[in-house]
Amino acid sequence: MDPKNQSSDNPENQTPQEEQQQPLTLPIASISLALSTILPTHFLTPPKISTLFSSNKPNKVKIPTQVSSLSNLSLSAALPPTKPNFRSTISANPLQDSLTLNPFRPSEPSNAAGVRRASIVWFRNDLRVHDNECLNAAHNESMSVLPVYCFDPRDYGKSSSGFDKTGPYRATFLIESVSDLRKNLQARGSDLVVRIGKPETVLVELAKAVGAEAVYAHREVSYDEVKAESKIDAVMKDEGLEVKFFWGSTLYHVDDLPFKLEEMPTAYGGFREKVQGLEVRKTIEALDQLRGLPARGDVEPGEIPSLVDLGLNPNATMGQNGKPAANASLVGGENEALQKLRKFTAECQAQSNKENKTDSIYGANFSCKISPWLAMGCLSPRSMFDELKKSTSRTMSAASGKKDDGSGTGLNWLMYELLWRDFFRFITKKYSAAKQNSAAPVTACVGAAA
To answer: Which Pfam families match (predicted)?
Structure first.
């Protein structure tokens, strides 16, 4: 070793002038660090580490983004010479043993400004790629994204009253919607991991397998769903992971309400009066290309379960003549929902050209008939409202001075239905989140709901 280098490495041999020259100012625009100065030689060999750096010059590290991300890079000479490339043992079988892998603990899990290596998107009642703030946020803040859907066993089987918690018709519609979501994700360079199991268990195992740093999900409103969110939040924090919740199930965003949720009016009339004139947020366009799946873990996508796998009788959806029952004619999925929306928009445009415009709210056309797809989140209320607003913008100008009493057609009638839906979801959220049991009863009359 060069004596000059020996002298400079020993703090006792440094002169005051050398000590002042030690701090190194790095340029922000372009940073290039020699690996030989910060890493032991054997650290350069593992394939996983080499993929983070430029392949043109193996002896240099190319920082692709912010200087602040360097603080999240943990480099240690004590690391083993090689890092095994393991295969995840997670399977679609709910009886599979839990993983014994150590969780990846980020140094700053709450730092959303930095790009995360991997994140999980937990799909729930938001089975779509259009107007999905949760999916888009994970895409923008992560280098890789793992979309996941869990068939929670607690949602199936018999209730305390002896009825199915989830009937065969709803379960069939859900299975079709999940299958359609997987196809839409695959068309954009991603995929959907499907498991049967409790989300608080499945998500932790998957996070350990792929080294995820955060879980993204949409909030829900019912008591059981809010309870599940609390479990996920607590378990993930124990593992050093961040959980980011978003709101996307109503026409009006919960943060835009002119009152606190605990002050939510218990009557529809009071709610409608308070939100009158409130602006609807713009929809979020679907991404043409999504982040790829995490390379670490090699997680299997898993098979989408059948009714038998969920403990349901497939013959229950068949009529006495051996053919599918009338309720089984509904097809789940985002693509089907978009087709229904286009058909409904065309009907509204056709009705606007008739002299008698009130006949569209009676008989079979009293509603837009898109409730099942809204309930599963195959279609968002905002995108539905936005699409109809664009298509009928020319015909709505003539009726703009007319009082919206719910008796109009097209956009006015749809707004009336979606407002009822918002009211029920917000009032459910209010009381499911409340800790007191002596809450005032909901006062609402019977009305149309989308």
So the answer is: DNA_photolyase
